[in-house]
Amino acid sequence: MDFFETIMFPFKWLVSVIMVGFHDGLSAIGLPAANGWTWTLSIIGLVLVIRAALIPVFVKQIKAQRGMQLLQPDLKKLQDKYKGKTDQLSRQAMAQEQMAMYKKHGTNPFSACLPMLIQMPFFFALFQVLSGITAAKDQGKGIGAMSHEQVVQFDSSSIFGAPLSAALLHGGAGNVAVVVLSIVMILAMTASQFITQKQIMAKNMSEEAMASPFMRQQKMMLYILPVVFGVGGINFPIGVLIYWTTTNLWTMAQQFFVIRRMPTPGSPAAKALAERRAAKGLPVLPILGGKKADAEAEAAAAAAIIEAKGQRNQPQRKNRKKK
């Protein structure tokens, strides 16, 4: 067992344990054990467990993203301060001031990638489990928590005529069902990932964040990541494509909820939220994070909307106590 296999072993075991748990539960309520839809629902169950466990990490990611966006004006000032200074001492001083700024506001550029980094070992573990199904069946072995009988069941299971362990590039090109389903799943996987990132950039970023150098990198990643996963998808078994598409759909729905209910201050989504609350006569509430700046940003947005509609509230005198 090589170093990578040693690292991946506990993840493979955990992935297979969750899948087998859902499979046994679904079989107990009457679904056929060797049916492809039973195993498909088991893979979807795996996604639900992992993503539910990552909700606290996702909340931290949102706070980190918001902190990074609010920091953009200060980062721009810092870059202007050291503009044209290429000596080692200046670069070191700039890096130190930048790290101090991140620490002060409790954020850093890598926090936004944390959920994806945590998910990747489980993704690779599922890839190894499903890719090794046929070999394990031929050798009379199990994989992780999957017994040899369950390995045989999975290897013979399919949906729409496409085996769950088949991949487009590895033996699946001759099967029309594998080709069609793989292409459909790859398109769904890349489209959901693109839409998720696009709605963040279009609705949940302030004007300062959109004009920052950090944003230029985000725009590049918006197009690069879907292409990378799309090209890589031809190597993924059908079961892995189901997993990744499902987790992308979860992310898209989760992000839609966050943008609508807890938007970034100064973003189009924050203005839309303030407008909705003003239309209903509701008070402005501070958004996720509870910072004074957040509350002030929402209050300012609400006031601007009310003023634009000609609905200024007249100041009212408080009743004075008679002497």
Strand order of the largest sheet: 1-2
Give the rounded overall mean pLDDT: 78
* Inertia-based shape: elongated
Rg over CA atoms, rounded to whole Å, is 25 Å
Distance between the termini: 89 Å
Number of strands: 2
Question: Major sheet, described briefly?
Answer: 2 strands, antiparallel
**Percent range for β-strand residues:** under 5%
**Helix content bin:** over 70%
Order of helices and strands: HHHHHHHEEHHHHHH
* Number of separate domains: 2
Judged by helices, strands and strand pairing, the structural class is mainly alpha
Q: Helical segment tally?
A: 13
Overall description:
Helix 5 packs antiparallel against helix 11 (238-261). The protein has 323 residues and is mainly α. It has helices at residues 3-28, 36-53, 55-81, 88-105, 114-131, 133-139, 148-156, 176-203, 207-210, 213-232, 238-261, 268-279, 292-308, and strands at residues 158-159, 162-163. Strands 1-2 form a two-stranded antiparallel sheet. The protein folds into two domains: 3-189, no CATH class; 268-308.
Q: Characteristics of this structure?
A:
323 residues; mainly alpha; two-stranded antiparallel ribbon; 2 strands; elongated
